[in-house]
Amino acid sequence: MKIQIYGCRGSIPRPNPEMARYGGNTPCIEVVSSSRQCDSVDGGDCGRVGHRIILDLGSGAVDLGQKVMGEMFQAKKRQQAEQEIPNEGRGEEGGRSSITTSDGLDEVKVGGKEEPKRNNVKLAPQKFGGTILLTHTHWDHIQGLPFFVPLYLPQFEWTIYGPRGIAKSLQEILSGQMQHDYFPVRLGDMTSKTKYQGLCEDMEKGFWLEGDISTDCDHPTSSIKVTSKYLNHSVLTLGYKLEEFAQIPLSSTSNQLFRRKKRGVSMAYITDHEPFDHALANGGFTPRDPRKPNCTADQYHVQFFEDVDILVHDCQYLFSEYAPGSPTSKEYWGHSTVEYVVEVAFYANVKQLLLFHHDPQRSDDQMDDLLIYARELAVKLEEKCGGDKENVRLKVDAAKEGDTYDLDPYVFLDENDVSIDGDVSESNGESIHHANDDVSPPRSVNTGQQCVLLGFYESASGPIRDMLESTDNSPKVEVLQSRDELLHFAEQNHPSVIVLDNLLFGCTGFEFCKVIRTEMGEWGKNVPMLVIACPGEGQRARLTAERLNLDDFIQGPYSPSYLFTRIQVSLLRMPLRWRRAPLAENESERLATLQSTGLLDSLPEERFDRITRLAKAMFKVPISLVSLVDEDRQWFKSNQGLAGATETPRDYAFCSHAILTDDIMVVPDALQDERFADNPLVEGSPNIRFYAGCPIKASSCEDGSNKMPIGTLCVIDSKPRDLSEDERRALKDFGAMIEQELELSNDR
Prior knowledge:
Blueprint: E1 2-7, E2 28-32, E3 52-55, H1 61-84, E4 108-110, E5 113-115, E6 128-133, E7 156-163, H2 170-176, E8 193-199, E9 202-209, E10 221-230, E11 238-247, E12 258-261, E13 265-270, H3 297-304, E14 310-314, H4 319-322, H5 338-347, E15 352-356, H6 364-384, E16 395-398, E17 404-406, E18 410-413, E19 451-455, H7 462-469, E20 476-480, H8 483-493, E21 497-501, H9 509-519, H10 521-526, E22 529-533, H11 539-547, E23 552-555, H12 560-571, H13 587-597, H14 606-618, E24 623-629, E25 633-640, E26 647-649, H15 655-658, E27 665-667, H16 680-683, E28 690-699, E29 707-717, H17 725-747
Parallel strand pairs: 3-6, 6-7, 7-8, 13-14, 14-15, 15-16, 19-20, 19-21, 21-22, 22-23
Antiparallel strand pairs: 1-2, 1-17, 2-3, 4-5, 9-10, 10-11, 11-13, 12-18, 24-25, 24-29, 25-26, 27-28, 28-29
Helix pairs in contact: 5-6, 7-12, 14-17
């Protein structure tokens, strides 16, 4: 495969003279397979390119699009010239003689001199297009899409792959930046034959491009396998590994050289990734112990790109810039440090590391310094492992626009396993197959429709079933109640996700989960399972859930939206960054106190609205609320900024977390908070990024000397921010004013 860099800058294009050597375009890499469908050992080239794969469509895609257009025009000219050339010679003066049609090329003369023969292979009409692999849909990785000219022409066929989202399809997300408010052309105006395909993590089977390696061909072929893995970024992001396998038939030359298949060549593309364990940003990675069955998330990450020939890895920061805890910290921004990347590449036995996604503020001279530092780290690791610092196994480079890298999967061998270039074949103990051996890699297996098993005895299955079946690529949903039915279905069908009431016919949900985990092999150990428990089942039940390694233990009232999202992310093998608040220890007393105030479902009152208006103005936020946390909802007694809204489900409510604290609760950036990042109020309207809530307490209806939290006074913004100490005191003062109004109501 041939790899060419068209963009390697992170975050935003930088057309700056001080960044010209490394380049200012945002991510875009072209990979072209090594298919040689019309050449031979004897030489000759039809001018065709192999299968084209494009990794991300940052601003670098603009120049790549121009190159692709030029290749199409050249191919059209060649095809036209071949059709116009007669079968008879045109003389010796610069003409051609003895030329066959497109059924095969025979002896060719130019100006009376013989050119090398090509194989007599019938060439199908060349197709134009290829495959586009998007890691994620942040703007710097898709901003070149509207300017990629080959998407506008009907001669091209493209398949665009990207992470499969929960609420929107890949096509819907990509069309967002081309709405009329932002761009004059719509995605639907692109006339190429384009298919959109959402992907999930698949580190094993993957899928094949350009078909499988054939055993009955009479010309060289290759095939690229694509596998994917979720990365640690602020949005759903995939890393990709490309492995090219080649097969070459027996040569007919006199010295009986063989072209044979070897293990293949490979590259991995890992951009926009932060260490799962942030402490590793300054080094300290420990390779996985093969004697232990489990591994950390970072070891799992490294496993994905072990032994690749080229690793392209996000390396935006130095640890001094990442700087956890400092005012300028880049922690949680979703990018890696050079200290982390060099270390994981070294322990993954990567042959060549390309530092990628360069910081938009880093000049060429600073990039040179960073590269020197990275190479020094590689030398230190080599010495630490007892190696020779003059012969470092890991080659470290920094990606530059225009740089190309060739990984050739074709090997030319004689009977002594010596290549025609004089190099000894590196078989590493693996068998090297002749062309007539069965060397085809397994085909990508269609895993078919995913399946969700609902073991609902008390819960209503209708709402969640309807939501699941209404989605794109909807899973099969099976609803059963009894232990025997559930176990039989699970054993026969291996569902993708299991959701259970803890009270079933014939057993508890926990008892069912124990059977799955212990008696159904590898699938049973790993299948995501969720148990819905009654509010009365407390700490003991939660400990049982932890011992059974359940994905979630849902206690108390929940909304169908929460359960739907929980199931969806389990299908995608994603962590859910949306945590329902646990119930208060004295929840029944708290709810009784709330009911006794008489505030729920009452008319608006100026005494409360006056306070929320003042809070909204003082904190300069678009939303200020008095929110009361009921059994299964939060209800707004006073609402400034959420026109028409009166309530949300309780598991949406930030306030349901805030009432569990004695102090105010501040969330500076909800997208960076594991409790709220996937919350519908963050992902959708009103797009909460900042939240601050002060608990509001009322005298207990059971014991007037006790105070029970019934809700909050909160302020909300769609932009990240924080509160100063003075602002925190002011929010507490406003909360005290609300509580004073409640006491006055009781006195009356």
